[in-house]
Amino acid sequence: MKRRSRILTSLVLLTIVWVFPTYAVTHIVNVFPKLSLKTQQIHTQKRIEKSLWSMKNPQLLTAVEGQIRKTVSAQELKLLNAVKKVYVLSNFSPLWLDKKMEQTFLEDYAVFAVSGISRNATRILNKITHSAIGSMERDIFLTDAFLDYFYYNKNLKNNINTWLYQSNTYNTKAVSDQELLMWVEAVKSDYGDKFIAKYIPSENNVYTETVKKVLTGSADNISLAKLALNAQRLRVIPNFNNGLYVNIPSYQLYYYKNGQLALHSVVVVGRKKRQTPILFSKLSDVVVNPPWTIPPTILEEDVIPKYSKDPNYGAKKGFQVLDYRGNTIAPESIDWAQYKGEAAKNFPYMIRQKPGKRAALGRYKFNMPSAEAIFLHDTPYKGVFSRKKRALSSGCIRVKKAAALSQILLSEAGWSVAKQKATYNSEQTTFVKIRSDNPVYLYYVTAWVENGQVHTLPDVYRLDPAFSSNNVDWSVFNKSF
């Protein structure tokens, strides 16, 4: 147990140093200014061990719970046990004395609350804003709200597809004792504001503008709730400075380099039954003259039924039937009828389309790591880009300006224009690793604010919930700091 305690203590100390290096240095040095750095670290480690012990001490927890219950109704708190531990560390002294920290938190938390992701968050928000400024009651409600917000932000990136796109999937929990201690130490050392600010994507201007619009309260409650939820979908994007960005319901791709728009193209995304997933990845390579290995869903639902009706179907499309050693199999030698319906899942071969002008992937493919085998690609069927509604593919993204995107990326990889043309004309499949860092953001936002204008899009995948009134008293909220 002692060894485990030392490990946990070291983790707390390392986390504090990593997250707040300036705080760690000044705090450790100033607590014991006449001692050597090593001795100071030993003293600090002992202090952390004592703090972690106190957070589990039944007598201390019971005493603090009694003080909390005298101040507020414990049933109104979401995270009573964690709140108790925090006030054990503070000796039941106020934690929210820094008004800048409080304002930074409340402005971001209010948008989170209005989004509807965390149940009863607006009730806690109203408790805060209707409590007397500086009161212990307000302090406790602020702490309870912050711990909800803390857990949400620590775990959001691993839960994007559920919390942000499926109703009633978020259930708040307490963060670890080490993380609670880290926050209280930051507050005690006047770093509470910076602690909160590190969870806010300050370089994402679209997020910032959308949040400001929500905080004005100058729209109907349903519109504010929609903007607030979409702000949460935006907050997981650090900025719009570098990378490829596709907002799925917009059918648009933007490629930014160093804050400058390098390319804009319309795109086709997955249809409702075969949706393009929300994912964040990074481009790995460009494939010039790509073949197409037909993925299982398309193979089972589309291609095998067509072969069953016409064994020569594949020849017209440039398809090859291959075993998993790469040997070519004659289509007429296969009893296609035995692979109808569910039996298609047992099909023992793969089908690949040769590269060329008629190939489904066109002349360019842009790969990225993806559990769903999603990528961007060219297409020979350019007419689809003139349609207004372009949720038409089987999940991958078709790019109208694929040739222009390829030229930019290959040039960044050091390829001359002459080399690009020669490779293209050869019709030989060529893989080119991308040297530069190119993140890819496939996201889904249906309402946002940009350059002062509110923008909305149709909810093509029906991922938005039925928004309800949030009942936030904005006139009181904006006077509560």
Structure characteristics:
L,D-transpeptidase catalytic domain-like, 17 strands, elongated, 481 residues, single chain, 4-stranded antiparallel β-sheet, alpha+beta, 11-stranded mixed β-sheet, 43% helix
Give a written overview of the molecule:
There is one protein chain. It contains 18 helices and 17 strands. Strands 1, 2, 3, 4, 5, 10, 11, 12, 13, 14 and 15 form an 11-stranded mixed sheet that branches. Among the domains are: 131 residues, L,D-transpeptidase catalytic domain-like (Beta Barrel), CATH 2.40.440.10; 62 residues, no CATH class. About 4% of the residues have low confidence. By secondary structure, the chain is an alpha+beta fold.
Between the first and last Cα atoms, what is the distance in angstroms?
A: 45 Å
Count the E strands.
17
CATH superfamily of the domain at 243-291 and 356-437: L,D-transpeptidase catalytic domain-like
What structural category arises from helix and sheet content?
A: alpha+beta
Main pleated-sheet profile: 11 strands, mixed
CATH architecture of the domain at 243-291 and 356-437: Beta Barrel
What would you report as the Rg, rounded to the nearest angstrom?
28 Å
Number of helices: 18
Strand content: 5-15%
- The shape is elongated
Oligomer: single chain
CATH topology-level fold name of the domain at 243-291 and 356-437 = L,D-transpeptidase catalytic domain-like
Low-pLDDT stretches are 6-11, 17-29
Q: Which whole number gives the mean pLDDT?
A: 89
CATH level 1 class label of the domain at 243-291 and 356-437: Mainly Beta
Helix content: 40-55%
